[in-house]
Amino acid sequence: MGFRQIGFKIAVAVDINKVASETFKINFPETVVLNQNITTLSGRDLLKAAGTDSGDNIILLGCPPCQGYSTARRAGQRLSEPRNMLVFEFARIIREIKPKFFIMENVPGLANGIGKEIFSQVIRKIKSAGYSNYAYKVIDTADYGVPQRRKRLLFIGTNDSKITISLPAPTNADTNSNKGLLKPWNTVKDAISDLPSIHAGEKHSKDKMHASANLSELNIKRLKSTPKNGGSRNSWPDELVLECHKNVNGYKDIYGRMRWDSPSPTITGGCCMLSKGRFGHPEQNRAISLREAARLQTFPDNFIFSGNFGDIASQIGNAVPPLLTRRIGYLIQRLCKNSRLPDRNFIHSSLSISISP
Fold this sequence. Notes:
Layout: H1 2-5, E1 9-10, E2 12-14, H2 18-27, E3 32-34, H3 43-50, E4 59-62, H4 75-80, H5 87-97, E5 101-106, H6 109-112, H7 116-128, E6 133-140, E7 151-158, E8 172-173, E9 183-184, H8 188-192, E10 203-204, E11 207-211, H9 217-224, H10 290-296, H11 309-318, H12 322-336, E12 345-348
Parallel strand pairs: 1-12, 2-3, 4-5, 4-12, 8-9
Antiparallel strand pairs: 5-7, 6-7, 10-11
Helix pairs in contact: 3-5, 5-7
């Protein structure tokens, strides 16, 4: 989305998830959308779908599944996650297409956690394919204007020796550490404060995306006992505390409220559920709505999501914030001044896998 907003053509998209593919077709009608498993597709298949036989004018964007490298999962789950190996499919597609640029986004754990050895193998494979010119770094999306604290690995490379690869420069900074050189972080208030008030379980009559999950009477009592603007479950009376939380110090964000004057916490696939993180509205006694989650991910209000409530929340949480991708797109445009990329065509290959619970 961010790349198209600044003039790039989205040639091809790949996703195994049917609902995500439907969303892509609705919003990118000019794009060839392949609802397939990436392991069944070759680089030649993708180039043919893009209407070209060369990767010279191609930028490959990939988001291999990151669940296996996420610190949000238990160590045993991370080690046994079968999707861990799909990052090698991204390396394979690079070798087969030989794009002018590749851009990969993933969780920090791929580069400096449990996935470190796998990431080293991926780099070796990419370098052997002629991509020794690369850069990677763990960044926080709040530093790029996204009203959300979301740490992610950015990995960018090219096979053009005339280009000096860099990563996009931050545009925003924490007010407490900023010396006035950059704009302050954007906040939850900046993103959602103009939206009308709704109750838990309600859908606004003029915006079907401004809908919040239903809550039990007990959970509404819990929210009423949670201080507004950043409060947590630590303020609950004993009779409201869940049994599973009574002897546990961790998971302190669960059932908490967001703060108006700060970026939101990381938006995940469970972003509209109180039990999944600090996803309570700063003031209203409900979890954030789908519209609020989409705005915190910087989706424009005219972006259309396919599927039911859970499908939409999952797509929003799994996405790369469009504002961040726009910042990356601007960087690529600047780098292209030193290269020949006349049509700015590229393949968006979203190598994401969704498994129903």
